[in-house]
Fold:
Amino acid sequence: MISTGSRVADLPMPGLAKLGCMTSDDALQHDSLPQSFVVLGGGAVRWSSLSFLPVRSQGDAAPAQPTLSSRRVTMTSPAKSNPPFAMRGSPFPKPGFRLSTRGRTAREKIYCVQKRRRQHEVRAEAGFHGLGRSPNTDSLALKNAGSRPSTGPIICDTHMRTSTPQFSPEAISPGPEIVHPAVQQGEIAAHNILYPGPNPSQRITRVLISVVFTDPQAATVGLTEKAAKAGGIPYLSASYPFNDHGKSIIMDAMQAS
Structure:
């Protein structure tokens, strides 16, 4: 069974690698954060970091100022765009958050961002890596085993079988970059290896659960409205504002619906 997991994706441009972008592990281990940073990416990590990092830096003399940057490269994250909830007021009502930096320090680096075919410069002390993860398969020489493709994600069926008699869990197979499906699909692969038979276990994605740790948090179960529209699936849509919910009012958490 191939279970090498995933790693932080390579930065798409050589110049970015030289700037030394922080990962989520780096941010959790640091006692302090830079005064300004650029969040690179367009998926769930971007939105989570913009809620977490300003709060994490409140003990500093001056809160870190995040700058939002998205890219045109397609993400494999299930949350590719805005969080799936309607916001009331500012989308990130946290102290220390703003969409651009104005000050200058000697340690700042220049990031070039393309927006609507125009190039913009953003200055910040550090960059935050939110560009996703990649399968940890480059060193496996998969072509010698006959797996397709020879690099990158390993293609497998719903029983977690590859093109050769091997099994591959989700962390290195195409699909959502979420932990619990990877765990479940590893269990499916192990079960089918240990108990071969005419009715093997298979993965089920119909009720996929996804969470984005913004503030307020966002969660989805099953199809999103966007996916239903894309698939031509009839659906009903309804929303209820948090600012009319008793517990939300008590907790002063009324920004979503």
Q: What stands out?
A: The chain has three domains: 7-133, 136-194, 209-251. The mean pLDDT is 68. Residues 209-251 form one domain. The longest helix spans residues 179-194.
